[in-house]
Amino acid sequence: MRLCKVSEPYYSYSLQQECNSYKMFPQREQFLLRHLVQDDITVTVGEQNLDNCDAVWIDNPLCLTQRVFELEKPVIFDAIDWYEEMLVKEGKVHLLREYRKRVELLRNCRHLGLVAQSPLVLQYWLDVEKVEPIVSKVIPNGYDDVLFTPQIFVDNDFPTLVFAGKMGRWYSNLSYFIHYATKNDVRLILCGDGELKNYFESISNENVTFRGFVPIEMLPTVYAKADICIFPVDDCSPIAVSEYMACGRPVLNLGMRLQWLVRDGIEGYCIDAPNQIPKKVEEMLTKKLEMGKNARKRIESFSWKNCAKMFEGLTKELIR
Questions:
Q1: The listed CATH number (3.30.1490.20, 3.40.50.300, 3.40.50.150, 3.40.50.2000) that belongs to domain 160-299
Q2: CB within 8 Å of 225: residues ≥ 6 apart
Q3: Residues paired with 251 in a beta bridge
């Protein structure tokens, strides 16, 4: 089976150039690709390889060029973002018109396979954008099951929260967790970089530690220091959250789209307002062992290896 991965120069590339925190963007496709190749699937990259593939793989409607559309080959659309929100938040408003044109092409694809990161994303593309896939499947972001294994809780002198991710504009709500840590006897460890890092440092005090970019193989040792892992974005399947849960850490998420995965009072909490942070942290600290075990159990089947197998299954169904 031969897949051709088609990328686009407007969105992800511009983010990579302007912000170091996006230098591996999009990470999901890199992890999936690694395991697809291990399963003897040939994946080539770039439109120059379109003539010799069985299906085209895109992760953004902007990837769907007129040439790709006119070839009428099966298209696998892996919906990895809330694209329009991201374009606005990251200052790419000038791309919105072109984005809408490409979505229209997507609606008219005759052989479309839709991969969604959550049931909410799947519902959006079916009900709001009115795409008509032949096959569709929810495949969330996964985790490396060799690196991310259950970590024993350590005895911290103070309650410790950990965040790993980017510090671009999409993550601006991280400031609410920083404010909480600076006003309370709480420690906050932040891993990552980006254009807002200097601002975040300017509103922090000694309770907040900035680790900068942390190689993926070192992240489990950082997560081991956490009583609670946090995420400040209203997203539905962040890679960092999958890794937190694989390490057996409860999750506090600022945003409600993650509720399908992080269930209230079971694996952690999703909150819709920053003033709920103190109460939820206090409650989670008393239940961190139970919530941590639940989190690991909840995410266990979503390793990148298993996600790639689900992706492969959808691809075979589409092109058979």
A1: 3.40.50.2000
A2: 154, 156, 160, 162, 189
A3: 229, 268
Q: Which residues pair with 79 in a beta bridge?
A: 116
Task: Read off the tokens for 251.
Answer: 């999750």
Task: Tell me the pTM.
Answer: 0.90
Residue 291 burial (CB count, 10 A) = 26
pLDDT digits (tens, 9 = 90+) for 196-239: 999 999 999 999 999 999 999 999 999 999 999 999 999 999 99
Q: Alpha-carbon distance 314 to 56, whole Å?
A: 13
Q: Which of 241, 208, 244 is nearest to 223 (CA)?
A: 244
Report which of 246, 197, 195 is spatially closest to residue 219, judged by C-alpha positions: 246
Which amino acid, residue 13? Answer: Y
Q: Which residues contact 63 (CB under 8 A, 6 or more apart)?
A: 6, 7, 8, 102
Neighbours of 220 (CB within 10 A): 17
Classified by CATH at the fold level, domain 2-142+303-319 comes out as Rossmann fold (3.40.50)
Task: Tell me if domain 2-142+303-319 and domain 160-299 are identical in fold.
Answer: yes
Q: List % helix, strand, coil for the chain (3-state, nearest 5).
A: 45, 20, 35
What is the spatial distance between Cα 320 and Cα 315, in angstroms, rounded to a whole number? Answer: 9
The SS3 of residue 204 is coil
